[in-house]
């Protein structure tokens, strides 16, 4: 809605002007002011787009009022209304940015033309501002999606079409020499704090903020070279925790990983930040991984790689019973050695991360597991570990069940569409990306028939439809459905339908 203010010390002039403009521009809201001082007071509340200002008024004159308003509201436009057609007034008005002037007295048509020209200018500027605001909103939304996408790729190895470097360039992230991960655990029911925390983090430092995974909010922080790592991280942690203090029902705990020097190593810092969140009962609601590092030695690098290799093979084969047995045996060995429960919990957690990461690499989407509480004894640790393994197994099973359903659908569709062609088991297996042996086994288990029987059924059904057409000979139909020899086709058809193709066609025509 466009708003217009008429300023004149003569009531009759104001009313006359309003009548003319209301009739010509019914969509414009109009108010009046009787002098310059009142014009300023009304403009503060009314915020007019255009002011018709009389020059000669008692007290604050029109030019003084225009100068004051244009300083306060740079986008406001002015038309001077005056009986003084002198160069001096016009020169001063032009310097103040006045768009035009109306002489007293003027014809109604002249007033409408002058005001209409400026109102069109106001409308055009409004449209441009709205377009710019919409573009800005769209850009911010796009950048927000890109930002969470980058964090997802870096921490969870999801594959996206847009290359990572392009996303970083879009987000104007240049300095990536040193970085670390902070994980914010947000209490259940407080997920609405996500946007507030995100805004606080943006203002406080150079960072990439991920999406909320369950109750985990991952943040990749880039080192400020003018500050120490610890002071920068503590400042950011306190800023985030200050958000939680505003809402007394919200509880947060922050884990801080070690600094790494490349994007390829960022997942290690993420894992470290999760380790630091394991004991949320601490009086200070943030903890650095380095403060618990002494009890986090999983073993030699060679042993870690060996375990990764072992777990990768077990996951690939779906041997979840063996994975469960291996981890439970390890817990038992730590208990037999008299190891501290928290030490063991942290070591087992790192093994679960290996399993989770390998699942992600295989395309099974899973959030990195973490214990919801610090185990008081080994019984609790076994129970919680068993629960985490069950959750991961369910995600794995769901993923591969869906893959099998998708594969069955693709096989059926391909056979239906290409039943008239020579379809070998090898050719069909390549089309769906499976081994011939596994594909044959899957087809039999899910559909109850082998693939060749299904292919035969498709061909015979197609033949039945073609036999309804008298213009088609049985020889032509033989080739159309994928057979090369009419006699063999007739034998297969009779075996499937109990009658020969010729008898089947005759029965159809007799019924008709």
TrEMBL record:
Domain of life: Bacteria
One Gene Ontology MF term: DNA-binding transcription factor activity
Residue stretches making up the Response regulatory domain: 3-119
SMART domains: HTH_ARAC, REC
Domain HTH araC/xylS-type span(s) in chain numbering: 409-507
GO biological process: phosphorelay signal transduction system
InterPro entries per record: CdaR_GGDEF, CheY-like_superfamily, Homeodomain-like_sf, HTH_AraC, HTH_AraC-typ_CS, Sig_transdc_resp-reg_receiver, Tscrpt_reg_AraC-type_HTH
Keyword annotations of the record: DNA-binding, Phosphoprotein, Transcription, Transcription regulation
4-aspartylphosphate sites (modified residues): 54
PANTHER family for the chain: ARAC-FAMILY TRANSCRIPTIONAL REGULATOR (PTHR43280), HTH-TYPE TRANSCRIPTIONAL ACTIVATOR RHAS (PTHR43280:SF28)
Protein name in UniProt: Two component transcriptional regulator, AraC family
Native source species: Evansella cellulosilytica (strain ATCC 21833 / DSM 2522 / FERM P-1141 / JCM 9156 / N-4)
